[in-house]
Amino acid sequence: MYVAVKGGERAIENAHAWLDDARRGDRDVPDLGLAQIREQLALAVDRVMAEGSLYDPDLAALALKQARGDVIEAVFLTRAFRTTLPRFGASLPVDTGAMQILRRISATYKDAPGGQVLGPTFDYTHRLLDFDLAQAPEVAPAPEIEARPADTPHILSHLDAEGLMQGETPGGSEVPDLTRTPLEFPAERALRLQALARGDEGFLLSLAYSTQRGYGRNHAFVGELRIGHVRVSAHLPELGFEIEFAEIELTECESVNQFQGSKTEPAQFTRGYGLVFGQSERKAISMALVDRALRARELGEDMDGAPAQDEEFVLSHCDNIQSSGFLEHIKLPHYVDFQAELELIRKMRRDAAARQAAE
Amino acid sequence: MSAQPLSRRDWLGLIARAPMARLGALWPDDPPEFTWLRKPEVGAMMVQGRAGAVGAAFNLGEVTVTRASVRLPCGTIGHALVQGRDTRKAERAALLDALLQTEHEEQLQATVLAPLQAAEQEEAETRARRAAATKVDFFTMVRGEG
Predict the structure, then answer these.
(1) Is the pLDDT of residue A1 over 60?
(2) Could you tell me if A97 and B52 are in contact, meaning their C-beta atoms sit under 8 angstroms apart?
(3) Which of A74, A116, B6, B16 is 20 to 30 A from residue A259's alpha carbon, by CA?
(4) CB-based contact, A328 to chain B, within 8 Å
(5) Which domain holds residue B94?
(6) Pick from A215, A236, A211: which is nearest to A89 by CA?
(7) Alpha carbons B136 and A110: distance in angstroms, whole number
(8) Interchain proximity B57–A93, CB inside 8 Å
(9) CB contact under 8 A, A85 and B42
């Protein structure tokens, strides 16, 4: 019979010391600086900020270092830190139309006003490993040409203006917050978007892909994908006015999907929306597709049991901290639980053997 | 460099967004005498977005910030809400806000705000020029002009 045990303190201490040692690795290799992580592993930093739901590149770099590059562990560290921070307030909604553009492409309009801007993209690279990078080569600064100040309105605003795009409904004054109130279903779109914005990229990618393969079929075009810098402003009561207290990098995707119309609405296009901290277009496109799939009910579309249309399924499982917390807890001691199961199996076998003997 | 002096709203934002290294290099002076109204406190602000860029507001995630408030011996009060977790930056920002409301304004506009603004603008312009270099020009390809 197992009983609850205390102990293992020494083993735990030594395991953690080994973890520290293993994190440092070969001492002949220079220690990795946070600035190196922030500057040279920037997309990992962005992912930790997005899923950690906290914009702070230096903090995300520290989390990645501490987690030995394990992104979900780094997200966990970031989320844990986040809970220690007092919330001073909320910003005004960011104006992504005023974004300073690094990248902006549309798969629907070749000649979008403001133009298609590729930015620092992996697209059109040949995905061949570049062995020169192993030698720390000198890298020339990016080419520059004179920039004419261009207005870059959202591309879908043209469809909006023609009335071909379903309008967005303004929300109420209260913005729901899943970090303050547990999720309840059905969840309004604002809550779904919050959950998706901090959701696991891999999970959302798979779900979005499933919609493309026919599970909750809803053919999407990338109406616009933009990456750039936006200012964040807030109204400060002690001042009585708004200040632009931060500048952050965001990736935004608006998908365009066909909608057959209903008794009350004409055939038109509808929108899926993705907005993510940092540069992460895979996540932003995935979020837009999943957002659109989750709108099936409000749009009165066929619900054929596709996972991506099931908001309870999606929202309950998209958070990688919740998922890994529950998944990994089963590796912790369950001695008493297991002992009960073991006793049960033994008893069932004894009973069966006794019945057989009696027959 | 901008000749127009910045308004208080603009300087509060400019200082809040500036990297500490840049701020410290421009204003390394010993702090003037002051009392804390609110000592630097690290926290977070929830950043909101809008569904479909124009619709209902939703909570996107938080950004780290630090706030502080100071009072100069003359009674002038300075506030700061700055991006990031650097308490020294919040202290400097609050002091600058206070001093910018005193007879030091003209000097600080010239020695701190103008260079900060120029540096921020230069960063934005560099990004814009790099972006411009990656702009796809379909017309040129089709016409073969140019």
Answers:
(1) no
(2) no
(3) A116
(4) no
(5) 8-143
(6) A236
(7) 9
(8) yes
(9) yes
Is residue B128 within 8 angstroms of chain A, CB to CB? yes
Here the tokens at position B109 are 């506009």
For residue B125, which phi and psi values (nearest 5 degrees)?
-70, -35
Cross-chain Cβ contact A148/B81 below 8 Å: no
**Structural domain count, chain B:** 1
Burial of A144 per CB tally in 10 Å (0-12, 13-18, 19+) = middle
Is pLDDT at B140 greater than 60 in this prediction?
no
Does residue B18 sit within a domain?
yes
Please check whether residue B122 touches A, CB under 8 A. no
- B17 Cβ partners below 8 Å, 6+ apart? A231, A244, A245, A246, A247, B82, B83, B120
Query: Pick the residue with more confidence: A271 or A110?
Result: A271
Does A219 score more than 50 pLDDT? yes
Name every chain B residue with its beta carbon within 8 A of the beta carbon of A54: 44, 61-64
Q: Residues 57..76 of B with a Cβ closer than 8 Å to A: which?
A: 57-65, 67, 69
User: Is B116 a domain residue?
Assistant: yes
| Confidence category of residue B130, pLDDT binned at 50, 70, 90 | very high
> Across A69-73, A106-110, A265-269, B2-6, which has the greatest mean pLDDT?
A69-73
Q: Are strands B57-71 and A54-55 parallel, antiparallel or unpaired?
A: parallel
Classify residue B24: in a domain, yes or no.
yes
Domain boundaries of chain A, sorted by first residue: 9-82, 96-121+151-167+179-324
| Interface check B143 vs A, CB under 8 A | no
Q: Which of A115, A243, A275 sits opposite B16 (nearest CB)?
A: A243
Lowest mean pLDDT among A90-104, A153-167, A271-285: A153-167
DSSP, res A131: G
Instruction: Let me know: does B85 contact A55? Beta carbons within 8 Å.
Output: no
Among the listed residues B46, B39, B48, the one whose alpha carbon sits nearest the alpha carbon of residue B67: B39
Is residue A220 predicted with pLDDT exceeding 90? yes
What would the pLDDT profile of B85-116 be if each residue is shown by its tens digit? 999 999 999 999 999 999 999 999 999 999 99
**In DSSP terms, which residues pair with A242 in a beta bridge?**
A235
Would you state the structure tokens that stand for residue A244, as one six-digit string? Answer: 């632009």
Predicted pLDDT at A179: 95
Task: State how far Cα A273 lies from the chain centre.
Answer: 13
Whether B49 is covered by a domain: the verdict is: yes
Residues in chain B: 146
